Amino acid sequence: MPEGHSVHRIARQFDRNFVRKRVGASSPQGRFADGAALLDGRTVTSVRAVGKQMFVEFDDDLWLRVHLGMYGAWDFAGDVLVDATIASANGRMGQTNQRGTVVDDRVMDAAGENSLSSIGAPRRARVHVRMSEQTTGLGGDDDAWPPPVVGQVRLRLLTDEVCADLRGPTACQLQTPDEVAATIAKLGPDPLVDDPAEAEERFVSVVRRKPTAIGLLLMDQSVVSGIGNVYRAEMLFRARQNPHTPGRDVPEDVVRELWQDWVRLLAIGVETGQMMTMDDLSPEQWRAAMAHRDDRHWVYHRAGLPCRVCGTTVVVEEAAGRKLYWCPRCQA
């Protein structure tokens, strides 16, 4: 499932390429035909991300709410202008080429997690993209515009220069301003949206009064926005916190540490496009981690392998229908 960093990256890409522009809208798949008809010809006026959800405002107070869910992704094509905050990564990030190689000193992730052309659930194929002043010739006809529809596209938004195709979302719906406000009010704090001090206090207050296990609370979007399965496992390991401890029994300083770690990790994720959760890596280790996710996590997806710290076998178990990875010694 795309986590919070991906949605913030999508929002920034939308802000650069669609805001203040009139768009064409269609639903090639047909499942959002009525909504697309209402959006067609309108101007995008703003975009915002909160946790795992994105809200796009159109003129006349009409909003589009998108929740990618487990399988959703946005595919971008055309002369895409990339926001510097998600393109540079201090020189470490380039466009994904799907082979996990390094080009011009920029690391390319084999899994596509840092892709500028497709952000969301990993996919085997990408829509052809012509990155403005960066690269061409990724396949297909450079002159074909608009690009052909590939697969099940729920919603296509199109300007003269850029095309964005939405596939496989959990939610794609139109909302009024009041409905948007009500949706956001149900979400927990987001470090990139809310006042930092107020958000931390809100998170600590909620967690410290809950009997629910902290491993479940971190995945509850009404408690904190944007954390998914990867960040949950990694944050708990970094805090050396047992995932089964009730929230109210987790020491306050540890709860605050979890929030502050989420602030740091989310910023790194937005910058690099990757869920990098390991610290103090050498330049060589950093480059390996950027290219391969197996080298960038402490416990996630490492069931049956030795803990990187103590050597104990990392375990995996089911927690509310999701896989929870943790070290039974470091997090005892």
- Give the strand tally: 14
Q: What is the CATH first-level class name of the largest domain?
A: Alpha Beta
**Alpha-carbon distance between the termini?**
27 Å
Mean pLDDT level: 85
Classification by helices and strands:
alpha+beta
| Structural domains: how many | 2
Count of helical regions: 9
Within the CATH hierarchy, at the fold level, what is the topology of the largest domain? N-terminal domain of MutM-like DNA repair proteins
The CATH superfamily of the largest domain is MutM-like, N-terminal
Enzyme class: lyase
Keywords: DNA damage, DNA repair, DNA-binding, Glycosidase, Hydrolase, Lyase, Metal-binding, Multifunctional enzyme, Zinc, Zinc-finger
InterPro entries: FPG_cat, FPG_N, H2TH_FPG, Ribosomal_uS13-like_H2TH, Znf_DNA_glyclase/AP_lyase, Znf_FPG/IleRS
Organism: Microbacterium koreense
Short description:
This protein is an alpha+beta fold and 332 residues long.
Describe the structure.
- The protein is α+β, with helices and mostly antiparallel strands and 332 residues long.
- 27% of the residues lie in helices and 19% in strands.
- The chain is built from nine helices and 14 strands.
- It has helices at 4-17, 33-39, 84-87, 177-185, 196-207, 214-217, 229-238, 252-272, 283-291, and strands at 24-26, 44-50, 53-58, 62-67, 73-80, 102-103, 106-107, 118-120, 130-131, 155-158, 162-167, 171-175, 315-319, 322-326.
- Strands 1, 5, 8, 9, 10 and 11 form a six-stranded mixed sheet that branches.
- α1 packs across α8 (252-272).
- It is globular and about 55 Å long.
